[in-house]
């Protein structure tokens, strides 16, 4: 029986949804054991939370520096091997950099950093360290998203000719229309969140999904963002046109003021022979569209799916799987990498995906501020 990977967590304490998501995901395939970390800025709160979730308090630290110092003093086979960074955006870069410099593997929430320059520094640091680095673009873990990727790679759609990705939420309505609230939330504070709210939070998921499922790279974008109020300095809605090549074009539509929407992430890819459509709120259905043919509905767990899709399916057909399972598949892929096992490169988003995501965010804001002009995404 293989030894479980020792996992540390930074952030994600209290009633944090992200914290619950990562802890449940890490437990799914019996690959990890949460042994410590720093869940909150205050040590006593972290200790209290550790007791609440049933882990020992001897490896709960007041900050990242103490964690690194104490863990490195332990015998190598007892140390934390990988750390999940679940803090607000502005802490991702300094924490991830320190961890890489000290030989830890890293699982980082997105956006990976707050600037593209930070992302490039992180890439250089990771290359020197040789550590595993994963960015949790969670939706890439869904079995039917992976099936979509494999079908496109196998040419079942033919040449791609249209890309349409929508990510609509309405949650920020309760904040944006209240001057005091929009001035105080960290999500709309560029010092803590980066230069973008909507594009940085959910638009980057859409951008990563485009490149993940199609296997193409976005070369140029044109963005039109909406800030809604003059005193609000961060976008909360936006439309971004895409060019992957002269003849492969598309659009990303993201919004956090789409009133009444919950988490409407829809991915539509059209080729010369067929189209595929997937909706995050109904993730077990992948729709295949062909001219003159009835619509086909593919579901997870069936032998007609790809090996990559089936590897991410835990339950028999007809048993719904969701966001926890999707994140669990990412953690499973990271575990394989840490353990030196063979793994499919699509099993977890890597640092390069986070780097391109940061480039996309900055270029989208730049495109808007320059008067909605086309700008190039770095190769």
UniProtKB/TrEMBL annotation:
SUPFAM superfamilies, sorted: Glyceraldehyde-3-phosphate dehydrogenase-like, C-terminal domain, NAD(P)-binding Rossmann-fold domains
Domain GFO/IDH/MocA-like oxidoreductase: 145-276
Lineage: superkingdom: Bacteria
Gfo/Idh/MocA-like oxidoreductase N-terminal domain sequence ranges: 25-137
A Pfam family it matches: GFO_IDH_MocA_C3
Protein name per UniProt: Gfo/Idh/MocA family oxidoreductase
Originating organism: Autumnicola edwardsiae
């Amino acid at each position: 029986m293989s030894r479980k990977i020792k996992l540390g967590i930074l952030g994600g304490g209290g009633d944090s949804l992200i914290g619950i998501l990562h802890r449940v995901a890490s437990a799914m395939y019996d690959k990890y054991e949460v042994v410590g970390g720093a869940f909150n800025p205050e040590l006593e709160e972290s200790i209290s939370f550790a007791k609440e979730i049933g882990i020992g308090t001897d490896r709960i630290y007041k900050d990242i520096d103490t964690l690194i110092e104490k863990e490195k003093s332990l015998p190598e086979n007892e140390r934390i091997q990988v750390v999940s960074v679940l803090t607000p955006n502005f802490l991702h870069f300094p924490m991830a950099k320190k961890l890489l410099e000290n030989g830890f593997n890293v699982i980082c929430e997105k956006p990976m950093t707050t600037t593209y320059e930070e992302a490039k520094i992180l890439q250089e640091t990771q290359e020197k360290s040789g550590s595993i680095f994963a960015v949790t673009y969670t939706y890439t873990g869904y079995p039917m998203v992976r099936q979509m990727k494999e079908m496109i790679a196998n040419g079942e759609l033919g040449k791609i000719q249209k890309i349409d990705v929508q990510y609509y939420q309405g949650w920020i309505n309760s904040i944006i229309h209240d001057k005091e609230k929009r001035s105080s939330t960290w999500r709309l504070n560029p010092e803590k969140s980066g230069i973008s709210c909507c594009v940085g939070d959910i638009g980057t998921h859409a951008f990563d999904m485009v490149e993940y499922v199609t296997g193409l790279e976005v070369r140029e974008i044109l963005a039109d963002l909406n800030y809604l109020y003059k005193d609000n300095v961060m976008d909360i809605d936006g439309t971004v046109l895409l060019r992957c090549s002269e003849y492969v074009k598309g659009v990303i539509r993201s919004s956090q003021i789409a009133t009444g929407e919950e988490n409407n992430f829809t991915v539509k890819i059209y080729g010369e022979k067929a189209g595929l459509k997937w909706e995050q709120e109904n993730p077990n259905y992948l729709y295949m569209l062909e001219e003159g043919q009835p619509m086909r509905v593919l579901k997870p767990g069936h032998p007609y799916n790809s090996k990559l899709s089936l590897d991410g399916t835990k339950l028999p057909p007809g048993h719904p799987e969701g966001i926890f399972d999707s994140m669990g598949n990412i953690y499973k892929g990271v575990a394989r990498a840490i353990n030196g096992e063979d793994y499919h490169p699509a099993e977890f988003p890597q640092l390069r995906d986070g780097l391109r995501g940061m480039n996309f965010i900055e270029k989208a804001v730049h495109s808007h501020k320059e008067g909605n002009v086309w700008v190039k995404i770095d190769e």
